[in-house]
Design brief:
Blueprint (H helix, E strand, L loop, with lengths): L1 H30 L3 H8 L2 H23 L4 H25 L1 H29 L11
Helix pairs in contact: 1-3, 3-5, 4-5
Length: 137
């Protein structure tokens, strides 16, 4: 079931990215008729296009770990991801402005997904089998 939901999640993430790529300008136009705001928003559209494919992994693994009632791994990976995000903010925002903020957010989402992906084999070995065992802090 995890494999199937992961395929669905990835397919929908790619679909959203394609929609944002094709219709991004129209979506932005639907939010405002102020030309300057539209132009400014268009400069950040590429972040919106890549976000679903980067973010899908953290959200997919959130669902898996919540479903298994093993949220401690989520907490620890969130703390790690936030620490990396904070450093990324300090480094990227002064140099790249709002693009640095978006980049730091992508790094945060990627770190959450990577962290939970690294914890997933432990979950499969120790929690999803016939005899779940408690471990962790």
């Amino acid at each position: 079931m995890v494999r199937l939901t992961t395929l669905w999640a990835l397919a929908l993430a790619v679909l959203y990215s394609v929609i944002f790529w094709i219709a991004g300008e129209a979506i932005i136009r639907s939010f405002t008729d102020i030309v300057e705001i539209r132009a400014l928003a268009m400069g950040f559209l590429h972040w919106l296009i890549v976000m679903p494919v980067i973010a899908v992994w953290s959200y997919q693994f959130d669902g898996i770990f919540i479903g298994a009632t093993k949220t401690a791994a989520m907490m620890w990976t969130m703390i790690l991801a936030f620490a990396v995000y904070a450093v990324a903010l300090l480094v990227l925002v002064p140099r790249f402005g709002n693009h640095g903020l978006w980049g730091a957010m992508m790094i945060f989402l990627a770190m959450r997904g990577i962290g939970l992906a690294l914890c997933y084999p432990w979950l499969v070995r120790n929690q999803i089998g016939d005899t779940p065992r408690e471990i962790g802090p």
